[in-house]
């Protein structure tokens, strides 16, 4: 393999600690031709809204967009399964020429009568933005006729990045928040935000908080329910994990309802414990004994997992890892988790990080670590090879690249089926990392190098 070069125009979004001044460029549209790992605006909106299990999700656009379904972005439900069904208006050439509004109205009428959802979300795709269908008017009329919220989601893919899709989803949910009764919501109450229950994590996190004596009013949006979202403004605190996806809604609730929010992470022993302690700290004046309950909970859980983690650390110490995830806030936790296992992070990046996020990432990383924003496969391959990476932590799009390079892989995205949050999740993470890095299969896939 010959030396890999970087596309002109991408230099300002790549930083190597210790070798240059920090001047990271980010929050910009992907460079044309770079084959970015980012997803589109529509994708971002679906990530956030799809886990609401008792709502109807209708894609207004060509059938291809409907391939982005529940089974691709997992989200478990303890009850309704309506979110598992992917509906589309299946716009054809004739609809694009003459407009698809009648088709959308007919689809909503049929689907709402058939499935009796608590609410309906209508996703605008690229072509709908181009032909100008008035989905707001169609949704308003359907809502009046059917007596349920029918909410437009302006997620036309061409108008921005995945992050704009997050905002579109938050704007849609903001129309639900504040429309329900809060008379039975107690003073020790929270909303869990940015948790999508990919492999049951929302249930694990909810259990921790309930053991502390905290009432969970709503989860945004894992195992979500429309009625809980409607009454979520009654909670005393919003606890935000995936900040990039729901921070817009948290800020909206702060401004409109005065609901404060804190940012947390549920990955790894250190951040999981801090998340619980931060919530306890917020409520300690209202409930003085909550801190003691939290300390007991953390002590009990850490005691279970720490001896196991020590065993994995002995086997993984000194191995090098690369991280590429959706939001930079998750990367912070990944670095701490891998260090707990004795591994060194030599490449870290995200799709939607801010300048402040990358400043924190720079401070966390060791000298020589490469930090990338909105990377592409060429860049990820280049630095993985140059740095001698043994493990790549990413999502489904990075997996084939890692395997082709003979590098172990850990799926930490929405496609996974294994819980990685909480204390038990740290054990699952360690086990998967160990199995992947030390698998005998790599003897049949010799590591690529720049020279050969």
Automatic annotation (TrEMBL):
Residues 40-437 form the Nitrogenase/oxidoreductase component domain. It holds the Pfam family Oxidored_nitro. GO terms for biological process: protein-containing complex assembly. Belongs to the NifD/NifK/NifE/NifN family. This protein may play a role in the biosynthesis of the prosthetic group of nitrogenase (FeMo cofactor). SUPFAM superfamilies: Helical backbone' metal receptor (SSF53807). GO terms for molecular function: nitrogenase activity. This is Nitrogenase iron-molybdenum cofactor biosynthesis protein NifE. Pathway: Cofactor biosynthesis; Fe-Mo cofactor biosynthesis. It comes from the Bacteria. Keywords: Nitrogen fixation. InterPro entries: Nase/OxRdtase_comp1 (IPR000510), Nase_comp1_CS (IPR000318), NifE (IPR005973), NifE-like (IPR049939). It comes from Desulfosarcina widdelii.
């Amino acid at each position: 393999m010959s030396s890999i070069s970087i596309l002109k125009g991408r230099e300002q979004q790549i930083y190597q600690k210790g070798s240059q001044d920090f001047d990271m460029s980010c929050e910009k549209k992907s460079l044309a031709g770079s084959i970015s790992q980012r997803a589109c605006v529509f994708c971002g909106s679906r990530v956030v809204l799809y886990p609401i299990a008792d709502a109807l999700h209708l894609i207004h656009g060509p059938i291809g967009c409907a391939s982005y379904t529940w089974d691709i972005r997992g989200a478990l439900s303890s009850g309704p399964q309506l979110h598992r069904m992917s509906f589309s208006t299946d716009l054809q050439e004739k609809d694009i020429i003459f407009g698809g509004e009648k088709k959308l109205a007919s689809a909503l009428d049929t689907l709402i009568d058939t499935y009796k959802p608590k609410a309906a979300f209508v996703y605008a795709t690229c072509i709908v933005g181009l032909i100008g269908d008035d989905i707001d008017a169609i949704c308003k009329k359907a809502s009046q006729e059917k007596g349920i919220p029918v909410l437009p989601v302006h997620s036309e893919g061409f108008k921005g990045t995945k992050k704009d899709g997050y905002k579109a989803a938050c704007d849609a949910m903001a129309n639900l928040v504040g429309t329900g009764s809060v008379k039975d919501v107690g003073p020790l109450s929270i909303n869990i935000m940015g948790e999508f229950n990919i492999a049951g994590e929302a249930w694990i996190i909810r259990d921790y908080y309930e053991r502390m004596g905290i009432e969970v009013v709503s989860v945004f949006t894992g195992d979500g329910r429309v009625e809980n979202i409607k009454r979520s403004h009654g909670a005393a605190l919003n606890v935000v994990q995936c900040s990039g996806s729901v921070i817009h809604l948290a800020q909206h609730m702060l401004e409109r309802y005065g609901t404060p929010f804190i940012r947390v992470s549920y990955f790894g022993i250190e951040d999981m414990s801090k998340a619980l302690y931060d919530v306890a700290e917020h409520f300690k004046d209202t409930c003085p004994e909550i801190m003691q309950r939290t300390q007991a909970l953390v002590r009990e859980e850490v005691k279970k997992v720490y001896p196991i983690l020590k065993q994995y650390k002995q086997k993984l110490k000194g191995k090098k890892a690369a991280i590429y995830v959706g939001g930079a806030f998750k990367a912070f936790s990944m670095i701490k988790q891998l260090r707990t296992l004795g591994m060194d992070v030599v490449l870290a990046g995200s799709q939607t990080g801010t300048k402040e996020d990358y400043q924190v990432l720079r401070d966390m990383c060791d000298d020589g670590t490469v930090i990338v924003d909105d990377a592409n496969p060429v860049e990820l391959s280049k630095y993985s090879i140059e740095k001698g990476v043994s493990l790549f932590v990413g999502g489904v799009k990075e997996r084939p690249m890692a395997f082709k390079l003979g590098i172990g892989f850990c799926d930490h995205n929405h496609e996974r089926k294994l819980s990685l949050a909480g204390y038990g999740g740290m054990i699952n993470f360690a086990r998967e990392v160990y199995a992947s890095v030390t698998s005998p299969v790599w003897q049949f896939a010799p590591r690529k190098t720049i020279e050969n």
